[in-house]
UniProtKB/TrEMBL annotation:
Identification of the protein by name: Probable allantoicase
Domain of life according to the entry: Bacteria
Catalyzed chemical reaction(s): allantoate + H2O = (S)-ureidoglycolate + urea
Record-stated family: Belongs to the allantoicase family.
Length: 324
């Protein structure tokens, strides 16, 4: 697949995505499209509607037209690529699909008047395969519409891209500068054997070990680390390092530094399965390196602070430009 699949899935349910409407869901529910797990299948599991699939499946159309599903992105942003996955749909997949996108304020019930833009043209699909489509449209979107021609089943829709936060909810406020939903990302990492370091930046609490960042067991000298690009430059007032659910594989210690190694939080002992909070007074920073000693996992990282004035202006200007 293309490199865009390393970017956050703006549509996934765990980041707040929602399938708000569909033309039909006679066989399988539309909500399955944005489930976070890989599609599964158990043969000969027949319910009242037929073989059960982990995806969205419509009836066989006997009239002109095509089926569609409308997805509200959990995190609005610039879409860099779309994956349409027909996993397990072998004799009932749609032969073609396309994707449109739009940007609207709030949560309107009616999007018929929205300015829809085609971001993936009508393209051929095959059965039981993940199809990756790069997108080159430099605009902010809040919703996507998946069209399949004429009917059939699609297991998952992934909408990868760059998060673009609304500055109205950031400027003038104390915010989590490390939150994925505010535009932060892990841009470098020493080890992500068990799970992605971006998981640390997800909203909410981690429900289990898999929903955080966890490294392999380190057998050589040194330590593991992750470099976080903050939502924007700012000063950090409170750091929260959460090892919830990591009972036997939490790091022994942690430190925070700038990208070039200047200390922000000295090397500090951590406890397993615990939420740690540290008051800080940092200089203006735009990247933070999280160092864990020697290895292990972190469920969540929060860096609460204030945006720099120049960063506030830049966020506002970028948001306005991408809506133009």
């Amino acid at each position: 697949m293309s490199d865009f699949t390393t970017l956050p899935d703006l549509a996934v349910r765990t980041l707040g995505g929602s399938v708000t409407a569909a033309s039909d869901e006679s066989f399988e529910e539309k909500e399955n499209l944005i489930n976070p797990w890989a599609p599964a299948f158990r043969p000969e599991t027949f319910g009242p509607k037929g073989q059960e699939y982990d995806g969205w499946e419509t009836r066989r159309r006997r009239e002109p037209g095509h089926d569609w599903a409308l997805v509200r992105l959990g995190l609005p942003g610039v879409v860099r690529g779309v994956v349409i996955d027909t996993a397990w749909f072998k004799g009932n997949y749609p032969p073609h699909a396309s994707v449109e996108a739009c940007a609207v304020d709030g949560h309107p019930a009616d999007l018929s008047g929205a300015g829809w833009v085609e971001i993936v043209p009508k393209s051929p699909l095959t059965g039981d395969a993940a199809h990756a489509f790069p997108v080159d449209v430099e605009r902010l979107f809040t919703h996507v519409r998946l069209n399949m021609f004429p009917d059939g089943g699609i297991a998952r829709l992934r909408v990868h891209g760059d998060v673009v936060p609304d500055p109205a909810f950031l400027t003038g406020l104390t915010v989590d500068l490390a939150a994925l939903e505010n535009g932060a990302r892990v841009v470098e990492c020493s080890n992500m054997f068990y799970s992605s370091p971006d998981n640390m930046l997800f909203p909410g609490l981690a429900r289990n070990q898999a929903e955080g960042w966890e490294t392999a067991r380190r057998r050589e000298p040194g330590n593991e680390w992750a470099l976080v690009r903050l939502a924007a430059a700012g000063t950090i007032r409170l750091a929260e390092i959460d090892t919830t659910n990591l009972k036997f594989n939490a790091p022994a210690e942690v430190s925070l530094t700038t990208a070039d190694g200047a200390p922000l939080l000295p090397r500090t002992r951590l406890q397993p399965d615990a939420r740690h909070r540290f008051r800080l007074e940092t200089p203006e920073v735009d990247h933070v390196r999280v160092n864990i000693f020697p290895d292990g996992g972190i469920a969540r990282l929060r860096l609460w602070g204030d945006l720099a004035p120049a960063a506030e202006r830049a966020l506002t200007e970028r948001h306005r430009a991408l809506l133009a």
